[in-house]
Records
---
Amino acid sequence: MVHSCTDLEQYVQFLQLIEEAKATGHKHPLKWAIQEAVRRNILRDYLERKGGEARGCLPAAPSERSEV
């Protein structure tokens, strides 16, 4: 039960990072929030395992898109 509370608290912190990134105008708020959460040890194990999947769902920046 205590572990679940810690996970929930860290999830809330992660959501706050996303909102912070949006509010400050980061071009890729989710990507920044994932990197920042790992740096701050927020949901680190989970994000290191699954963060790539979340980043993979993001649209590519114009410079990252392949020419068609």
---
Amino acid sequence: MGPLIATLCRWPGRRPTESLFREMGYTLPDRYKEIVFEHMPPEERAMLDEYWDEVAMERVCSAGQGKPDARRFLGEVGYSSPYLDKLYSDLENRRAAAPAWPLHAGYRQFVGKLLDRRTLGHGFGSKITAALEEHKASEIERFQISAAGWPDKASGLRDVLNDVAAQRGFVKRRNSCDKQFRNGLKVKCKIDAGRRNTWTFGLPIEIEVSHARDDVVVRDFGGLRDICPGYSYYLGYKSPQSGLLGLMATVDLLDIVGNLIEQNS
């Protein structure tokens, strides 16, 4: 096992990460989970928590380069979940989850309703998004986030991201910001300035992970969405304040993951 994957496998899991994220004031993921559980039988909730735990662990231990629900991984994998293997072994479940729907049946039904194109703009998904946007507004107020200095173009987001990251111990570079932990793990954030910036678009953040003693560099670490279910709603924004909240949440979550791995190394 290479140094990068071996180091990532020191991550203690989703729940300690979410706990620290919550302590910092980021409670949108908790609200998301509350909504999911409201639409699910009580007996399925514990199984969904286990499903989220296992998906998160596989994503981190493959440097974000795996698709746990499809049981497909690119490159080295440091952890394979027996629980997800069991879900995938059920032929009916596997067919329903193809090509990339959740293996957990109850969560799959929820996500299906969420993404139903027939009710796009006025149905279930819109109501869920509205509820989460309302919660984000309370976080913006709690963090006392101002729109001052928000740029008009995506290229200007680079400076905003760098300022946010520098406050958290990251080092500013020309086109990115990065942080190296004592165990050799290195994380980098940058803005894809080629994506057009509008108030309804997702934040164009790219995350890279590497290790000081490893030649492997993962330039598209996609694990944060699975590390903390509900986090992805920070990436959509309709105002500068919401955009800044998303940048803060991303850097803080990434920093929490790195610190937990460092402490566990």
